[in-house]
Amino acid sequence: MATDVEITERPKPGQLVFKPARRGKPPQHLADLDLAGRKKMLQDAGYPAFRAAQLSKHYFERFETDPDKMTDLPAGQREELVAAAMPPLLTTVKNLKADQGMTVKSVHRLFDGAMVESVLMRYSKRVTMCISSQAGCGMNCPFCATGQAGLTRNLSAAEIVDQVVQGIRGLRDGVVGPAEEAPLRVSNIVFMGMGEALANYKATMGAVHRLIDPSPEGLGLSARGLTMSTVGLVPGMRKFTQEKLPITLALSLHAPDDELRDELIPVNNRWKVDEALDAAREYYDATGRRVSIEYALIRDMNDQGWRADLLGEKLNKRGAGWVHVNPIPLNPTPGSKWTASRPGVEQNFVERLRAHGIPTTVRDTRGSDIDGACGQLAADV
3-class DSSP state for residue 107? Predict the structure, then answer.
């Protein structure tokens, strides 16, 4: 049964939180472990190791958690096996729909009462899911609702993965668009929900492997369909580079100069613009995957033409062909003093970047009317 958690204190301006207040750990789930770990978990609980593969196939191939439907398991042990290997992790308390039902934001309650959100976006030929890695966020960016709410706690690998499994189940059951129409599998995963994923590194990487490893180890998604977002945690970026996985790295830059970025992205007070861009270039060199630069355009704050020129110059200084810029019209959040750039200013910013030879695409802002777009996730119920 979910219990109440204490209200997370809102951080002071500029305050970073890397270690959340200590809390009880969520129950261990088979998605926290690789197949060998699952076998040991079941053996330690007194069950045959081969049950691990059976349970894994139900979860990662059939997206099933109902013991009554697991007819390959002994009838007398089904419930206790599922309870031991697949304890409930996320209880969906609300689904909000937008874009004629093709975008759905889900608010989930965790075992301790903490709340997280995920967003599923269905397109004609793909399904993209935005998932959370933390309940809240400790990076404290002032224009982001998640950052302003503060950090409640890190998610476990299984809590991250279960967002995707529940999303796939929702597609199959017609929660997101008509169930009879393809595509019915999530093809793209973006770690752009609540939290800084690289600040929860171990659980994030465990989740990544559950997402990309073939069944019964994991979901068998293509690593090329994953995007890892960061505000510029340079040590985490360099550690992630060493994984050498063909995952897209997205750097949330939002300003090319330290003076402004210190204000917009508090972590910039530790690792400056040039350090973050150098780490991003190193990621491209190691993986061959073009890096995305995310840039929320904020009216009269970071949308000046000279900042577009400075960004273009800094990116070109590090070579050609390694980067792509995604300007994002700022999504409004309650009480914020900032809003999106004027359309003409946005277009000028884009054209000046392109004049430097930088591939630039304005990002889709689906889900903004249900507070499901970038920077709006705050787990309100």
Answer: strand
Q: What is the pLDDT of residues 323-372, one digit of tens each?
A: 999 999 987 766 677 888 999 999 999 999 999 999 999 987 664 554 44
144 known ligand binder? yes
Token output for 372: 């499901």
294 is catalytic: no
Summarize pLDDT for 300-309 with one digit per residue, the tens. 999 999 999 9
Element (H, E) at 94: strand 91-98
pTM beyond 0.90: yes
The span from the CA of 231 to the CA of 90, in Å, is 26
Cβ distance 176 to 120 under 8 Å? yes
Query: In this predicted structure, what is the pLDDT of residue 183?
Result: 67
Task: Out of 117, 159, 217, 294, pick the active-site residue.
Answer: 117
Task: Give, in degrees to the nearest 5, the angle at Cα 44 between 25 and 50.
Answer: 110
Does 141 belong to an annotated binding site? yes
User: Could you write out the DSSP letters of every residue in 198-252?
Assistant: GGGHHHHHHHHHHHHSPTTTS----GGGEEEEES--HHHHHHHHTT---PEEEEE
Tokens 């894994």 map to which residue?
Answer: 56
| 367 annotated ligand-binding residue | no
Distance CA 290, CA 281 (A): 9
Give yes or no for a contact between 373 and 366, defined as CB atoms under 8 angstroms apart.
yes
Written as six digits, the tokens of 147 are: 């950052």
* Separation CA 247–CA 189 (nearest Å): 10
Radius of gyration of the chain (CA): 21
Question: Is there a catalytic annotation at residue 374?
Answer: yes
Q: Which residues of the chain have pLDDT under 50?
A: 1-7, 367, 370-373, 375-379, 381
User: Is residue 183 reached through a cis peptide bond, with omega within 30 degrees of 0 on the bond before it?
Assistant: yes
Structural domains of the chain ordered from first start? 30-85 (1.10.150.530), 91-370 (3.20.20.70)
Please compute, for residue 19, the number of CA atoms within 13 A of its CA located in the half-sphere on the CB side: 1
User: Residue 130 annotated as binding?
Assistant: no
Catalytic residue among 64, 159, 346, 374: 374
